[in-house]
Write a structure and sequence with these properties.
With 132 residues, the chain is an alpha+beta fold. It contains two helices and six strands; from the N terminus they run E-H-E-E-E-E-E-H. A hairpin with a 2-residue loop joins strand 3 and strand 4. It is globular and about 40 Å long.
C-alpha cells in the first residue's frame, strides 16, 4: 500500500519519557513540540528526523499510547533508526512523510512489539524508496 507524502514538520525538545520504548527494543525520543499539533493526525508516521544537521529515517507515534499508558496527554515519540547517542536536551526536527496507520490499543505487549517492528520496516521501505 502506497501512502500519501505529507511533509509536515514538527520541531521539538527531547525530554525524558518512561523508558518503555527502550525496554521493547525500540528506543524513542520523546518530544515536547515547540508549536501546536493542530491538524496533525494521531497515529504512526514514517518520518525523517534531523539531529545535529544529519537526517535519519524514523517511525513516529503521535497520540496517547493507549497500549502502555492508561491516562495522559498527547505525545510525540520518535524511534530514530540507526541513531546511537544521547538525545536528551537536543532540539530535533521531524518531517512526517507518510501516514502509516491509526493509533490503536493492542491486546498484548507481544502484539504491540510485533506491530512496531512492522511499522519500522514499512517506514524504512517508504523512506528508502524516496531517496533512491
Amino acid at each position: 500500500m502506497k501512502t500519501k507524502h505529507q511533509n509536515i514538520k514538527i520541531v521539538g525538545f527531547v525530554t525524558y519519557g518512561n523508558g518503555l520504548g527502550q525496554r521493547f527494543g525500540f528506543p524513542t525520543a520523546n518530544l515536547t513540540p515547540s508549536g501546536e499539533l493542530d491538524g496533525v493526525a494521531d497515529g504512526v508516521w514514517a518520518a525523517l528526523a534531523e539531529v545535529d544537521g544529519k537526517q535519519w529515517h524514523s517511525v513516529v507515534n503521535i497520540g496517547f499510547s493507549p497500549s502502555v499508558i492508561t491516562a495522559g496527554s498527547r505525545r510525540v515519540e520518535a524511534h530514530i533508526m540507526g541513531y546511537s547517542g544521547d538525545l536528551y536536551g537536543k532540539t530535533i526536527t521531524l518531517t512526517l512523510c507518510h501516514y502509516l496507520r491509526k493509533e490503536c490499543r493492542f491486546p498484548t505487549r507481544e502484539a504491540l512489539i510485533e506491530q512496531i517492528a512492522h511499522d519500522r520496516d514499512r517506514a524504512e521501505e517508504l523512506l528508502t524508496e524516496e531517496t533512491n
